[in-house]
Amino acid sequence: MTHHPDHDVELYRDDGTYRVFVDLPGFDPEDIEVTWVHHRLTVSARRTGGPGSSRVFDHQVNVPRAVDDDGITATYREGVLDVELPVDRGADPPGRRIEIEE
Q: Which ranges carry the SHSP domain (predicted)?
């Protein structure tokens, strides 16, 4: 069964994997482009209908942890794009703690 998001885009963390659900009804898989660059998932979809009719969707999602780039998968069912981004358990979270000097 496909999860239908309450919003256009939803991000969840589920047991070591981030999941991004994007509601894209009416698009075909070949209309959708998914890219991953520098902790950011970008989803773009373009569909041209009849004369003067087109639909465009562009959205970026920042992911707060390092991701195993090779393990990213995406599926599209019933108008919902589901992208799974496995957390890279060997990487430290971005950023660092700042010590306070007295």
A: 1-102
